[in-house]
Automatic annotation (TrEMBL):
Organism: Fructobacillus apis
Residues given in the record as L-aspartate binding sites: K81, R165, R217
Protein name per the record: Aspartate carbamoyltransferase
Catalytic activity field: carbamoyl phosphate + L-aspartate = N-carbamoyl-L-aspartate + phosphate + H(+)
Quaternary structure (record): Heterododecamer (2C3:3R2) of six catalytic PyrB chains organized as two trimers (C3), and six regulatory PyrI chains organized as three dimers (R2).
Gene: pyrB
The enzyme's E.C. designation: 2.1.3.2
HAMAP family according to UniProt: Asp_carb_tr (MF_00001)
Ranges of residues in domain Aspartate/ornithine carbamoyltransferase Asp/Orn-binding: 151-296
């Protein structure tokens, strides 16, 4: 595998590299112990956007790998005084951090900070409506566990197609691995860039063919004023919510997924979240192993991990 000292995006990785990452995550899930560190590796977690699943699973992954973890309280940091992201990262680097795990509202935040001289290893925990590599990894792990393969599977993504970094991140990698994609949701949120990955379909048509139905949260915090004022939860539920009636149209082997947080009874009916077809909480569990795999590659690339377990 190409030894990249950062983990920013999976789209530039080959099929073989992605499958190697999935295999490592599977091995961790099966109980494989990580290789030992050859130094005290210090990681700073900087979440400029709210998070439950991503931040806690990164924390657990860091713990399992033996890293020294520092969670930066951004609400009480100099960010509130106008400090730039680059200066924040240069500060934690100067203090002695080796890795920074960052979630930020700006698309492609990592390109700017690299240009501005940030040198410590960076892990992208989500950039605006850009990409979310560790979410894509845990989605892949969940699908592999369920079906044992990727090629030939049909995935339908339903919901906010315009503002979701998950759809951007997953679509590129899923297609690369041979999965067929369709998209459903409010037509005004259809993103023409997604035509490269699959076609827009009506929910009631696409759900009959899908192996995986990926429900996407309405990204209320990313809607502009016009979008927010025109959004109707009642209309959304009627036309785009995955409910019991729509679930009955699915293949017997098909599953539900959702990157979270779930707005129950909006994107998906509450009973389905906890039902037999749901893999939503399995995704959350898999987040630890997926993030362990991504961090392992960063540790290896920076020569902070022993060659043998």
């Amino acid at each position: 595998m190409t030894q990249e000292k950062d983990c920013l995006d999976l789209s530039n990785k080959s099929v073989e590299e992605i499958l190697e990452l999935v295999a490592l995550a599977e091995a961790y899930e099966a109980g494989q112990k990580p290789k030992a560190l050859n130094k005290d590796v210090k990681v700073a977690n900087l979440f400029f956007e709210n998070s439950t699943r991503t931040v806690t699973s990164f924390q657990m992954a860091e713990h399992n790998l033996g890293l020294s973890r520092f969670d930066v309280n951004l609400a009480a940091s100099s960010v509130k005084k106008g400090e730039t992201l680059s200066d924040t990262l240069k500060t934690v680097e100067a203090i002695g951090m080796d890795i920074a795990v960052v979630r930020h509202s700006e698309d492609g935040w990592f390109d700017q900070v690299k240009q501005e001289g940030v040198k410590l290893a960076l892990v992208n925990a989500g950039d605006g409506a850009g990409v979310h590599p560790s979410q894509t990894m845990l989605d892949l792990l969940t699908i592999k566990q369920e079906f044992g393969r990727f090629k030939g599977l049909k995935v339908m993504m339903v919901g906010d197609l315009s503002h979701s970094r998950v759809v951007n991140s997953d679509a590129h990698v899923f297609k690369k691995l041979g999965m067929g994609l369709t998209f459903a949701g409010p037509k005004e949120w259809w993103n023409d860039d997604l035509k490269h990955y699959g076609k827009y379909v009506e929910l009631d048509d696409g759900i009959k063919e899908a192996d995986v139905v990926m429900c996407l949260r309405v990204q209320n915090e990313r809607l502009d004023d016009k979008e927010a004022s025109s959004f109707s939860a009642e209309d959304y539920i009627k036309h785009y919510s995955v409910n019991e009636a729509r679930a009955a149209m699915m293949k017997p082997t098909a599953i539900f997924m959702h990157p979270g947080p779930v707005n129950r009874d909006i994107e998906i009916e509450s009973a389905l979240v906890d039902g037999a077809r749901s893999r939503i909480f399995k995704q959350m569990k898999n987040g630890v192993f997926a993030r362990m795999a991504l961090l392992t590659k960063v540790l290896e690339a920076n020569e902070w991990m022993e060659d043998e377990a």
